[in-house]
Design brief:
29% strand, 13 strands
């Protein structure tokens, strides 16, 4: 399928955030800048994939700037992925570069931010997740591709509706501590995690409508908004 080259930024699927996380502590990354100057265009390949100019921060401390993939239908990656130093839709097709998830610390592609989920005690990182909420609690998502195609949510709608995926992996981080949200123990785990917002914690514990595992984006967004405007925080 011939790629469409868009000259303006598309609406962001899934309510993504562009904030960048710091590079790994204790490193002074060498910068590798190949290709043309920074490009703000989103290069749409098809309805599920686009490429955006951005930066890979590798675990070895090196930074690589290139055109990086964003899977718009299934956020995040759990497999080696390709990237390019020149726009991927040009002819002849430019040489592709490939990198494994475990080699990546974090990645910014246009307005999208991704980070490799490195859990304590885990031998090998397996998931490069997309950040879905940013604030006192960060929320990351990686959704496994499903056989039956899913409709792409209206931009921003995922903040107010459930995640439409059967196989999705959520991670939360607060005060630098990353943990995976367990679907089987979602109610007890997240009601305790959000205990400093009792009203929200109670809704999660009771399993009220729109306060289940699939609603984590809107739940964490609600928590962050409440925390940012609470008297205790505003007085700091």
């Amino acid at each position: 399928m011939k790629a469409l080259l868009l000259a303006v930024l598309l609406p962001l699927p899934f309510g993504s955030h562009a904030q960048q996380a710091p590079a790994p502590s204790g490193t002074s990354p060498a910068s590798v800048r190949l290709g043309t100057a920074a490009d703000t265009t989103l290069h749409v390949i098809d309805k599920t994939l686009l490429f955006a100019w951005g930066t890979i921060k590798r675990m070895d401390g090196q930074e690589v700037q290139a055109y990086l993939p964003v899977f718009t239908q299934y956020p995040g990656m759990d497999f080696p992925f390709d990237y390019y130093f020149t726009p991927p839709e040009v002819k002849p097709t430019p040489p592709r570069q490939t990198i494994a998830v475990e080699q990546v610390h974090s990645m910014t592609a246009g307005p999208y931010y991704f980070e490799t989920m490195r859990l304590e005690g885990q031998k090998k990182a397996k998931i490069l997740a997309q950040r879905m909420a940013h604030g006192p609690v960060e929320l990351f998502l990686q959704a496994e591709q499903q056989r039956a195609p899913l409709p792409i949510p209206v931009p921003g709608a995922i903040l107010h509706t459930a995640i439409p995926y059967t196989n999705s992996h959520f991670f939360v981080r607060r005060n630098g501590r990353l943990q995976q949200v367990e679907r089987a123990s979602f109610g007890p785990q997240m009601s305790q995690y959000l205990a400093d917002y009792p009203d929200l914690a109670a809704k999660v514990a009771r399993g009220e409508t729109n306060y289940h595992y699939r609603d984590l984006v809107s739940i964490i967004t609600e928590y962050n908004q409440h925390t940012a405007t609470s008297p205790a925080r505003s007085g700091q």
